[in-house]
Write a structure and sequence with these properties.
The complex is a heterodimer of chains A (107) and B (123). By secondary structure, chain A is mainly β. Chain A is built from no helices and eleven strands. In chain B, the strands form two sheets. In chain B, strands 2, 4, 5, 6, 9, 10 and 11 form a seven-stranded mixed β-sheet that branches. In chain B, strands 1-3-8-7 form a four-stranded antiparallel β-sheet, with no helix packed on it. The chains are: A mainly beta (107), B mainly beta (123).
């Protein structure tokens, strides 16, 4: 099983700031089969990024993903009020697993 | 726009079988091109993948749950179902169904999700 470790656990930021979230895999993720999801309280996760760097349909271009192998990042270039949420990475190169999440909260 | 909706009992007794249904609208399960999946989220915790199914009925399960899980599909009703046997309090979670964008054999990202349904295991 590939274990995904996200850091940091929580970020306290202000609207307008730039943020980069980290996701590290215990072994290489084949073909960059890495996705990012956003989850708000009481809602289902929403797909943001797949294939490590491809934005899902309707996702604003302030969200970007990059990485390969074992190290991946999600960057939000300028935080909007609606971006405060929990973010999960997920690998689907083998039996899918998720990271434990990073909470982005309002400072 | 594809929509998914989970349904089923919100309370299940320990040792019994949890049964949920996911109804898909806005697209046909039998058109192929996608897997369908169940995921769960323990209260206040992260996400755990349960298993995949293709419209043909082929399945692929999480090894840690495989002995207790059955996922099936009813193409005539455009539904998929989840059965989890011998439940304990550790199976209390929000259960989601989702569509899987296929990128390879039993590989894909989860692009449409249902709203989720909370199942509590308690006597």
């Amino acid at each position: 099983e590939i274990v995904l470790t996200q850091s940091p656990g929580t970020l306290s930021l202000s609207p307008g700031e730039r943020v980069t979230l980290s996701c590290r895999a215990s072994q290489s993720v084949s073909s960059s089969y890495l996705a990012w999801y956003q989850q708000k309280p009481g809602q289902a996760p929403r797909l943001l990024i797949y294939g490590a760097s491809s934005r899902a349909t309707g996702i604003p271009d302030r969200f970007s993903g990059r990485g390969s192998g074992t190290d991946f990042t999600l960057t939000i270039s300028r935080l909007e009020p609606e971006d405060f949420a929990v973010y999960y990475c997920q690998q689907y190169g083998s039996s899918p697993t998720f990271g434990q999440g990073t909470k982005v909260e309002i400072k | 726009q594809v929509q998914l909706q989970e349904s089923g009992p919100g309370l299940v007794k320990p040792s019994q079988t949890l049964s949920l249904t996911c109804t898909v609208s806005g697209g046909s399960i039998s058109s192929g091109g996608y897997y369908w999946t169940w995921i769960r989220q323990h209260p206040g915790k992260g996400l755990e993948w349960i298993g995949y199914i293709y419209y043909s009925g082929s399945t692929y399960y999480n090894p840690s749950l495989k002995s207790r899980v059955t996922i099936s599909v009813d193409t005539s009703k455009n539904q998929l179902s989840l059965k989890l046997s011998s439940v304990t309090a550790a199976d209390t979670a929000v259960y989601y169904c989702a569509r899987v964008g296929i990128v390879g054999a039993w590989r894909g990202y989860f692009d449409y999700w249902g709203q989720g349904t909370l199942v509590t295991v308690s006597s």
